[in-house]
Design a protein that fits this description.
Length: 367
């Protein structure tokens, strides 16, 4: 696999894919696209033609008619175009209307049957296909969808990170869980990675922050939704920005050197890294000591026939640690996540202690 950055980039710098969440009318789409081209920042125009909506009765896209408008926008601006395809009919329609880039949405990559059907329809086609992560944080499923398209010998393949669904409150519409795209890049070092801050944030005011973070994490580009009149958009109104705002956002992103100095090249950084290494060792030491105490508590509970999960004790731990963490500049979200992982490990260990059936092991060994 080779990187497709050159394939998509017109203006140099990070690849910028932009356009409305949905094509709504000919005028809305073409005006948006022309204004985007005028920013001289956008490399590829996007538009949703068939919209996968959570609830029936919402606007489900204008359908193939919108592809004619997008083709017109392509002719007027000279820019490449991208649309989401979710089935074979969409693929044929998009190919017929000269679309340059197809992407599979988060609700499609979650379904191997759908991905395979699209892969079969694209066998050997000279086109670019971008795979959004599945809605749920399953890296193997994301990897599998990429493999299916690669196996079909599609010319150019890349990935789009759009965050993962959540249950409960969060500042994000789809929390980014950056470790997942980072691991995907380790699995496919040449893969072009685009970040979609619009669907991660679900709102306008945090788009720049997430875009900057993506670029700092070495993403090759961004997909950001834009609209001539965002407040009146027929879908995802809260997260769309005007072409003018997009231009300002693109100009505000700081491009840092992607290469970190090697050991010995920068004394200041070496010292900071040494400090981190020491603290990491201390953390591991502390965690190991904490687990030893957990095991002792497990033995005590077993002896005294006390249940593993004591919710009030857990709530007390969280409350105390959040207060302490906040006073030391750590976020509540981080403390709760960190302690939840520790708690889960403690429960697993205590369960092993309380329910280890030594007599069963002996019987199985005998047989
Ligand atoms: C979109 O890009 O408009 C879209 C529907 O995205 P996702 O598949 O990430 O939800
Ligand atoms: Mn959208």
């Amino acid at each position: 696999m080779k990187s497709i950055n050159n394939e998509l980039s017109v203006h140099g710098g990070p690849i910028l894919i932009s356009g409305p969440c949905s094509a709504e009318t000919e005028e809305q789409l073409i005006t948006t696209c022309i204004q985007l081209a005028e920013t001289k920042k956008v490399d590829v125009l996007r538009a949703g033609i068939w919209k996968p909506r959570t609830k029936p009765g919402s606007f489900e896209g204008v359908g193939a008619e919108g592809l004619k408008w997008l083709d017109q926008a392509k002719k007027e601006t000279g820019l490449k175009t991208a649309v989401e395809v979710a089935n074979v009919k969409h693929v044929y329609s998009a190919l017929k209307h000269n679309v340059d880039v197809l992407w599979l949405g988060a609700r499609t990559t979650v379904n191997p049957f759908a991905v395979q059907e699209i892969a079969d329809a694209l066998e050997g086609v000279d086109i670019t296909v971008l795979l959004k992560n599945p809605v749920n944080p399953d890296i193997d499923l994301w990897e599998g969808s990429i493999e299916r398209i690669l196996k079909a010998r599609v010319k150019n393949v890349g990935a789009i990170h759009r965050g993962f669904s959540k249950y409960g409150a969060s500042n994000f519409r789809n929390p980014p869980q950056w470790q997942i795209p980072i691991e995907l890049k380790q699995r496919f070092p040449e893969l072009t990675m685009i970040c979609d801050p619009s669907h991660i944030c679900g709102r306008r005011d945090t788009l720049l922050e997430v875009s900057q973070e993506a670029i700092d994490l070495n993403f090759d580009g961004l997909m950001i939704e834009s609209h001539i009149n965002p407040d009146k958009a027929w879908s995802d109104a809260n997260q769309q920005i005007t072409p003018n705002e997009l231009q300002k956002l693109a100009e505000s992103i700081i491009i840092r050197d992607s290469k970190l100095p090697l050991k010995g090249e920068n004394i200041e950084l070496d010292l900071l890294r040494q400090k981190i290494n020491i603290l990491d060792s201390e953390l591991i030491d502390i965690l190991s000591k904490r687990m030893e105490i957990t095991d002792n508590i497990g033995l005590y509970k077993k002896k005294n026939r006390i249940k593993i999960l004591q919710s009030t004790r857990w709530e007390e731990i969280i409350e105390r640690s959040v207060t302490e963490g906040l006073s030391k500049g750590l976020s509540k979200e981080f403390i709760v996540k960190f302690l939840s992982d520790i708690h889960l490990e403690s429960i697993t260990r205590q369960n092993n202690i309380m329910n280890s059936n030594k007599w069963l092991d002996k019987i199985l060994v005998k047989r």
